[in-house]
Design brief:
heterodimer; A: 177 residues; alpha+beta; Alpha-Beta Plaits; two-stranded antiparallel sheet; B: 751 residues; alpha/beta; Dimethylsulfoxide Reductase, domain 2; seven-stranded mixed sheet; binds iron/sulfur cluster
């Protein structure tokens, strides 16, 4: 099993619904977020292109954050989901430094927090909150090992890219282009 | 100069403790904001309450999930609701922030005067506040007649007050949503098709093959199901054509982006019409069977060639032809999106007419993938007496102007409130519900004079907004998550209804709108119009007439009914009578010519920015509904201020840097109260700037939104009034940049 997410940049409108839904679902404190939007503009008026990307933890196969965590709080859970056990975390911030995607933040309670792929929902057979809320249905989640999962179907016949491939982290967010 | 109605910034006023009377109750309930380890709660441990969203007029139905401690944790869309298909937009998802906002109005407030003449708000009991409103209403009625009590309303809260005023004998009401927003569209489509577009718009984007957006910013305006359907259209490979001087989100997702010179849209539309007619690309069967006036139109557009339009619009003739052909190729499955906020240049009804004509030529009405024939459920009227007949209404206030207006015009109601203007029908007092007038409409001067002139203003709202600063009495309303409300019935493909029940007790000392209206009504002896103890009785009675019940609706939230009016689309070759003068779709508008207006649209040039000035274009961000949401803690997290978009060429010329703060000054010398950050971006033309509307709040009580960004409304002093329906065109304003604080300049002068 390998959980992953595909994000269709041809449809994302950068509305930020995924960000608010994550905030209310996961009780993310105000002023912080587990997912965020990047707007990228290329060209000059009027020959322009614009890409919105809904970004979050890449749940990397080769995750530097897990490797550098001195307490084992950052770890891999089922399906490759990268998690932080809040009670084990001492808030040293090594993982924040090591993440090439800036996906982690220091929670005011003293531990490090980040996207969990909504494991509490996924375990119950639901989609992550951001996936279920997205009005353009541009987020696709599922098991890459299952050819009929939403994410596998979304990746079929489409071009995609990952972010910072040069970091060698084997990220599991696929941006459809 | 001090006016009678000093603008009171609530928190700064009065005796310290006043509004901030945060009860222990309030503090206790704020746990949610205290950061602490508390994992997400799984849905099984939450109780869902049926609601429909009030963060915008789309009114998506959903569920408010409440945990075991009684805290509202999240709001999620209802899967069976055609407005949202189970997915709320960011504002709806963040709607919970409206409930938790610690800046909410917490208790009734009454304006008082100190011995030195200064004014402040004092906390009052409900009894006191309601008695005062009722007393004033009686006074006005005795002195001037009930018609002199005006109402500015919007949405559900406004409708409760409207019921109160109608029962009391006044129909002097206006909504900014009409003349300051979509009125021209109503007038234009009604005169062409004898039908309104309605809300949610009957656009069949889901099945379209060609979507044309002219000043529609889907993706930035999150009209939920439309945005969802645009995404489906992208999946279906539909052609999307976007006309916009700004590289909008929709433009970025389009097949063709036409970066038009602002204010020239009518020329482009007429050139498209020219191509369709003269290259015989129009839908001949449809036009012949259903329309009136093709010959007039053909003659009218004879010289309106793409080459003619190029000189006006900056759009290349071959692009005009290619896009016209793309529409014709997809016809009738074309949606010419009629837009929503369409008051731009004062000839807006005519621009909307051009869009309606284009629609007709493509046969893109009542066909799959174009505009469908919507239907709604009519809600049975709860047994109450008929309203008394007022001696005059909002119609008479217009004094014969704007014959095609179908609703009250805010600016006319304001003018009627100013004795100096010596209007035949004068308004002496206001109720305001659910609209932040000073930020919702242009021409602040007019608003201020009117507000200073009237004898009494009562405002019902959930938040301290600029408008509450003008009130004599403030009535704190419970948010939509804390109250029963009208059954939602809106048009759609399938008629449907949705329910709103309270998910929590009203916070602080706020009360539901229905309760406030009833309490005032009872004090005025209008019990027969408020013949229930709880609004749930009204809803239950109505639902039972409709074959369901409050109990059932609490479980399902949304109910769909079979269509009664026939199919969603007009059949092939089917006879169809349009509700117009000729019974046909009027390419040539008989109504307009009768009233002395151009029966077919004519392009007229509009003023251009003077040197060193740029046209002010304003719009929306997906995470905010104008000024209403800018203090919402969840949405503020997403966007806390606006910026002014400036093309890099312009930025170079002025030496403006990214995030530099500037003040904006318009052609009439109006300056923003607050500075705004510069966003240097290729996404805007060099002759224009762009701002998101709804920021730059001047009320300190809005602890997050105060002074964040600038208000475009302050810069809209030039209003081009649409002679047909009174629309207030707001895009004819031009701004320039001030790099120094203008207030400082004044001070230095004095020193
Ligand atoms: S909710 Fe969907 S459309 Fe909106 S920003 Fe997130 S991914 Fe993009
Ligand atoms: S998967 Fe869950 S935790 Fe991760 S960004 Fe989406 S909503 Fe937030
Ligand atoms: S479109 Fe968004 S804000 Fe408007 S009613 Fe729907 S969810 Fe609420």
């Amino acid at each position: 099993m390998r959980y992953a997410m595909a994000i269709d940049t041809k449809k994302c409108v950068g509305c930020g619904d995924c960000v608010v839904a994550c905030q209310t679902e996961n009780n993310v404190p105000h002023g912080y977020c587990r997912d965020w939007i990047v707007e990228r503009v290329d060209g000059t008026y009027p020959s322009l292109s614009l890409e919105f990307r809904s970004e979050r933890c890449n749940h990397c196969d080769n995750s530097p954050c897990v490797r550098c965590c001195p307490t084992g709080a950052s770890h891999k859970a089922e399906g490759g989901i990268v998690l932080v056990t809040h009670t084990k975390c001492i808030g040293c911030g090594a993982c924040i430094e090591s993440c090439p995607y800036d996906a982690r933040y220091p929670h005011p309670e003293g531990y490090v927090d980040k996207c969990t792929f909504c494991i509490h929902r996924v375990q119950k057979g639901q989609n992550p909150a951001c996936v279920d809320v997205c009005p353009t249905r541009c987020l696709h989640f599922g098991d890459l090992d299952d050819p009929n999962s939403d994410v596998s179907l979304a990746l079929k016949d489409r071009k995609w890219k990952v972010l910072a491939p040069e970091a060698g982290t084997k990220p599991q967010l696929y941006f459809l282009t | 100069m001090k006016t009678r109605r000093d603008f009171i910034k609530i928190s700064a006023a009065g005796t310290g403790a006043t509004v901030l009377g945060l009860s222990a109750f309030g503090a206790k309930k704020f746990k949610w904001f205290e950061p602490k380890i508390e994992g997400p709660v799984s849905d099984e441990d939450l109780t869902p309450y049926a609601t429909y969203c009030e963060v915008c007029f789309w009114k998506c139905a959903g569920w408010a999930y409440v945990d075991k401690q009684g805290r509202i944790r999240k709001v999620v869309g209802n899967q069976n609701d055609p407005h949202c298909n189970g997915r709320l937009c960011p504002r709806g998802t963040g709607g919970v922030g409206m409930y938790y906002d610690e800046d909410r109005l917490k208790t009734p407030l009454i304006r008082e005067k100190n011995s030195d003449g200064s004014q402040y708000f004092r906390e009052a009991s409900w009894d006191e506040a309601l008695n005062l409103v009722a007393t004033k209403m009686t006074e006005v009625k005795d002195k001037y007649g009930p018609e002199a009590f005006g109402l500015f309303n919007h949405g559900n809260p406004g409708t409760h007050l409207e019921h109160l005023l109608r029962a009391y004998g006044s129909e002097s009401n206006a909504e900014p949503a009409f003349a300051n927003c979509r009125g021209p569209r109503s007038a234009a489509y009604f005169s062409t098709f004898g039908a309104y577009i309605g809300s949610p718009e009957c656009t069949d984007i889901r099945d379209t093959q060609c979507l044309v957006l002219i000043g529609s910013h889907l993706g930035e305006n999150m009209h939920n199901s439309q945005v969802q359907e645009m995404s489906q259209a992208i999946d279906n490979g539909a052609t999307i054509i976007t006309v916009d001087p700004r590289f909008s989100t929709a433009a970025a997702h389009s097949t063709h982006w036409l970066p038009i010179k602002p204010s020239t849209d009518i020329a482009l539309l007429m050139a498209w019409i020219h191509v369709l007619i003269y290259e015989e690309l129009f839908n001949k069967d449809f036009v012949e069977k259903y329309t009136f006036g093709l010959d007039h139109l053909k003659e009218h557009v004879k010289n309106m060639t793409p080459e003619w339009a190029y000189g006006i619009t900056d759009i290349q003739p071959d692009v005009i032809r290619t896009t016209a052909k793309a529409m014709a190729g997809a016809a009738p499955a074309v949606v010419i999106h009629p837009g929503r906020h369409v008051v731009w240049y004062g000839d807006d009804t005519q621009r909307e007419r051009a869009m309606a004509i284009l629609t007709a030529l493509l046969g893109a009405w009542g066909k799959r993938g174009s505009l469908y024939l919507p239907e709604s459920v009519s809600i049975p009227k709860y047994p109450q007496p008929e309203y008394p007949e007022p001696e005059w209404t909002w119609k008479d206030i217009n004094e014969g102007k704007y014959p095609l207006a179908t609703m009250g015009i805010t600016t006319e109601l304001l003018k009627a409130s100013i004795p100096r203007l010596n209007k035949k029908h004068q308004v002496k007092a206001w109720l305001v519900g659910g609209t932040n007038l000073p930020l919702a409409m242009p021409d602040k001067k007019l608003f201020k004079e009117a507000a200073d002139s009237v004898e009494f203003i009562a405002v019902m709202d959930t938040m301290p907004m600029e408008i509450t600063g003008y009130a004599d009495v403030i009535l704190p309303e419970a948010t939509y998550l804390e109250r029963y409300d009208f059954i939602r019935s809106a048009q759609n493909r399938e008629p449907n209804i949705a329910l709103r029940v309270p998910a929590a007790e009203p916070k602080y000392d706020s009360k539901p709108g229905w309760w406030i209206a009833k309490q005032i009504g009872e004090r005025l002896g209008l019990h027969d119009y408020f013949n229930y103890d709880d609004f749930s009785e009204v809803i239950d009675w109505q639902l039972k007439q409709m074959g369901t019940s409050l109990e059932e609706m609490k479980k399902i939230g949304v109910k769909t009914y079979p269509r009664q009016s026939g199919p969603l689309y007009i059949g092939e070759g089917e006879d169809f009578k349009f509700n117009t003068n000729t019974g046909k779709i009027e390419l040539y508008a008989v109504d307009f010519s009768d009233e002395g207006f151009d029966p077919m649209p004519v392009y007229k040039p509009h003023p251009e920015p003077p040197q060193n000035f740029y046209r002010l274009i304003y719009g929306r961000a997906p995470m905010h509904t104008f000024s209403r949401t800018s203090n919402n803690p969840n949405l503020w997290d997403l966007m806390s201020e606006n910026s002014v978009w400036v093309n890099p060429k312009v930025a170079d010329l002025w030496g403006l840097k990214k995030d530099e703060e500037v003040w904006l000054k318009n052609q009439d010398g109006a300056v923003t109260s607050f500075p705004v950050k510069v966003r240097v971006t290729e996404r805007i033309r060099w002759d224009s700037v762009y701002m998101v509307h709804g920021f730059g709040h001047s009320d300190k009580k809005l602890s997050r939104a105060f002074g964040r960004g600038a208000s475009d409304e302050e810069l809209i002093t030039n209003i081009a009034v649409d002679p047909i329906m009174g629309g207030t065109g707001m895009r004819g304003n031009f701004i320039t940049f001030l790099k120094e604080d203008p207030a400082m300049e004044v001070k230095e002068d004095k020193a």
